[in-house]
Protein 1
Amino acid sequence: MKPVSMIIAGAANPHVRNYYNGLKNNKFVKLLAIAENDKVRREYAIKFFEGTDVKIYSDWKIMFDKHPEAEAVMPGADNLYHFEIIKEALLRKKHIYSMKVISMDEGECREIIVLRKKQKVIFQVELELHFCQQYNYIKKVVSEGKLGDIKSIYISNVSQSPICYFPNWGDPLLSYGKDIPIHPGSKIGRGGAITDHPHPFDLVHWITGQDIKKVFAVSGKNQRDYLKVEDHAAITGELANGVKFFINPSYSNLEEKAETRRLYWPKSLEVSVKITGSKGYVAADYFDKHIYVLGNNYVSPDRLIVDGAPRTSYTGQNLLMSFALAVRGKRKVESSAEDGLRTVRAMNAAYESISTGKIVYLK
Amino acid sequence: MDNVKSIGLLQDDPAMEYKKKVFKFLEVKPEIIKDIGKHKRKATILDLSSFPEIKDAAKYLEKFPKVIVSPLTASKLDSKYNSKVYTAYPLRQWGIAKKIVDMSEKNICGDMTSIRILWSVPKKLSSDKKSFLNSTVAGLVDLSKYMAKSQLKMIYLEKVKNENNLFGLLTYRNDIAVELEINETLPKTMEPSHFIKANFKNGILTNMPLVGHHNEEGSLFADDKKLIHPLIEDAQWDGFDEIENTYWQMLMAINSGTYPQGLLDSRIIIDAINNAVKNEEPVNLEC
């Protein structure tokens, strides 16, 4: 299969760097160029891809003009700029591999969906937990009826905050797209834990096939006084079929205030999925195949941390592979733009509930 | 115990056997009451806490200087009985909660910001529906209040209909948010789990395991017949033993060319093992 050629528009999302290693020699995706206007992030890319034929630009528009041959775009800029980049990419008939949310503005999401359909291109939203085998197992167990009727579902996506090394994520405008207080009159704006963690809102639907019907949410006071966006949120509610759900997307696992990633709480990420049914119960966490690491030459040097031990899967696909296969017509897209919009609607409902103190119903 | 030498119990106390065992352990005499009207009181405390609700509590309160009552009974009492009553919220004595309160008071972690409480119990140990709400849930709400050290501002519950399974969100006047996950419907093969995670501006206090469920690897699958900790390498593969799976993973590595070819020093290894066992001496391989 011919690799899908790709250009990356922006590296403001911390996940973009996670792809760099895999993109150096990837049989499914050929990286042509990266555009990043932030000097630090651009120099990181220059250094990383030194000696390769990956071109680095400071302006994504110039990159688009210079690479008409690119088949796909990864919009990795701050969420504020997603819509503009994605729209331009779609007008040029590029397939899209979007970092997390299309936009936190539902109107923009809808406009993108219409344009995507018109342009007949593939649009995949990066919701990477679909590719974790333990959550696939849970989805399978639920769909096979091994738990009986589902009664309740609990999902946490608790992490450290990335803002010490990606300060843009602490800016409500860059992150949420608008500066809206989390509570009326609050100096804390939307754009933190909820915006950064769409996964649990997506997993609820992905596992159960049900949409969220009603939402009630709270946001406690920030652990980080210096953070201008919310670092705590807790959401509960009901799915369309009456199943109760709970989501915690908070930044509760503390990190050191340092310019590189340096954990305080040893576990960077908790994605605990717990499902109770009439006949059984299943639970999994992200690091359920784990290793404890204490090393002076590792991420978070000289700190005890929990990391994952590798899994070897035969049938599993990784993110870029699944995207490339979808582009080549060999499979359906894993997480579509419509899935992305559904997730954003649920997240915005949570924000609205926090702001009003009321239950929010999604139609 | 130094001060409490005997405790009154009604003869139909639902937890009589357990309480007798406790009293024996604490060297306290049980004073069994058949008819409160005719009873000649010696004990200074009467324990009614195991009754989900005592409707005519006043007659007991008139008779005994102090009475331990359930939260539901306490909720119906006139405030004039405030100094005569102990409300049974025994979770205030839970070690992890006491430690959180103590460390909070000592400012070990800075200001508290939120609390997560997980209370999961198999159905074989679940309480009746009335006790679930009025003792278990009430007890956990009180526990959160005890740790938050503030007055309750808001409570919201999503409860599964007709089941002892709910999620809760609470806020306190000092802006601490509390999350409740209370589930007493788990399969019979499971054991109870009770965790608290308290988040602070400069730290975290918790008894939640860092990894896995109960510090074991793997996911967890349970029904009424079995409980397993499957380690999922591939959701489509029906085999959960991490070690057993290394066989087919070896085949995959051979397939991809990443598995080393050759004898891999097998003769050295096998001979050394057999010699070591046979001779019960160190086997020196350097020469």
Protein 2
Amino acid sequence: MSLDLRLYVSRWSPRSQRAIAVVESLREPLAALGGTCEILDVAEAPEAAAEDRVLATPTLIRRAPGPPRRVVGDVPDLELLLDRLDLPRELLAARR
Amino acid sequence: MRDETSSGRAAGADLRALVDVNADGMLVCHPDGRIRYANPAAATLLGRPPDELVGQDFGRPLRLDATTEIDLLVDERLVVAELRAVETVWDGSPAILATLRDVTQRKLVESELRRANGVLQAVIEAAPVAIAQLDETGAVTSWNDAAEVMLGWTEEEILGQRCPLLPERMGIPGRRKLALEVTVSSRDERPVDIALHTGPVLDDLGEVVGIVAVAVDISDRKRREERVRYLATHDPLTGLANRRVLEDELGRLAELRGVPGRRAADGRSDALLILDLDEFKVVNDTAGHLAGDEMLAGIARVVRDSLRPSGLAARLGGDELAVLLRDVPGEDAEHVAERLRSRVSDFRLQRAGRTFSTTATVGGTLIEEPRDAREVIAVADLALKRAKRAGRDRVLILRGREREAIEQAEDTRWAELIRTALRDDALVVDHLPLIDLASLGRRGLELLVRLPEGEDLHPPATFLERADSVGLLAEIDLAVTRKAIAALGDPVALPRWVNLSRSGLAHDDILDAVAEADPRHVRGRLGFDIGEDVLFVEALRSAERLSALRGRGCSIALDRFTGQYPVMAGLADLAVDVVKLDPSLLPRADAGGDEEAVVRAVVESSRATGREIVAVGIEREVTRRRALELGVTMGQGHLWPSHRILAPG
């Protein structure tokens, strides 16, 4: 499976900063599983944001595999994130 | 097929109505995050019309029943919103209800608040002055680095304790803003002089919720000031007081002894001795000036050590030392003088293998009446000269008749001085303001006369007695009265008060001067201060004169009221408008108990008879407040200094 994640942020907001930090910490484990995560700023990539119908930031979208799922808001808990987006548990283990 | 009862439909309709009117944005989503319904407020917040929102994937909030923050980009404007999601049922199926509240403003305010507080904290920490925050009980809630440097306590140690910047006996300032110099103790119990400023921190209702204390260490400045003061009052070689201090002290004693009731008890008096080293020049010539200085310093020490603490030793200059004895029995002057002579005679200076010594001659005088400082020194000096002529290494104290004879010569000199001053209209008049204690406005001016002699100005205490004994006091009173009347010619001039002596009151000239003056100037504006002893003792004789003065509209003040004469009856009968309390009364009131009751009774009875009360000699703010609290309405003293008019008239 190749995981394709996309995180939309408003770069200067503290909420977005926190989300970026979490996603950055997942980069390596994701790469190990053959996945990627793109971080986009809604102000700098408005077409992509419009195409993805992003209404608020931070919004994290799982584009593949499977039907798209997204979560919106502050990202406090990695486990919760994995659960909501149905992400493999291995990511969690790899991070530790 | 769903069951739709009519009440279910009604409930659903109510819910929808609530959601529609809510000021917060509300989204109803499927459990997977797709929007089913958006209220008008949500549409505004998300920047799209509701029908465009339906079906879009908003996203699943990560937590339910918890508040999170999200950013919304609406027309290029960043909006921060609080997002709260709960599980619910909508139209019969499970849904998630998400509330969006615009908190952008609040975030901005919070951010600004944090920034401002950050600046404040930075200032407090960087400041080179001690800054402490206290709660309303005076306990420390914050303590900066400079405070730690100043007093030694770290913030940890001092939190919760009474703030050490406040001196121990001081009350908690509370609402009062303080600005004063105090001495406090450091952690290792050293005294530290500081300039302390405090101010209250108030809440929205104006209640005191805290206090800020700021302090600067002024120890260095204090040390410098102390040094300057020391140099101004001491002779550097011997460490004794200098001539200036001696003269000031003699002057102070003269004023003190001039007040009835303050004279020394029978058989006791003050005394001034002048000690001169007989062989000083020889020592200087043979062993050099340094040796001479050393000898002088050594002898000065001997002299100082021979005196009781109440004695004052001073260096008059050259090889002359002076000793002032206060309130001693007559014979003591001789005993002390002899002891000094003997000890100086025994003193030895070892220098370059040789021994030096000297004898001393001591001349002195008892100060049996208030006398001018220069005059006292002159008489003591005369005694010294006589003793030297008689063979040195001896003591001669002038007292009684002999002293009087010498002083008589002085009297003649004074009479001349006074006559000349009167003739040339050279008397100097000081105007001491009469202050309303509550409003601090000036209600009048008391004229005090001083006699010039060369560069000096003699205060009333010293020359008025001389004037009285040579019969010139009434003339002085007349001259001052004329000046007062002349000044009152100006319609905006303050009321003037003239001190009237016994002889002045008895003299026709003063009555005539008042009678001849323009009544518009005098009526209600000219007053006479007359001593209690004069008014009570001369009561009968004075009655007629007082009545003549009052007939012209003059006011009369009872001066130096001590309450020692039969108070109540006498006071009520006296034709007096103002009562001036003797300076001894206020301190007596502070003694509490009976003393305070007496003073209050005096004030009350005066007030009851419609008179105003004046307290004199007020030098400090705290005394003013005390006087006001006792019922006194007016005051005079160094707190409100006098001013002088030098031009004649």
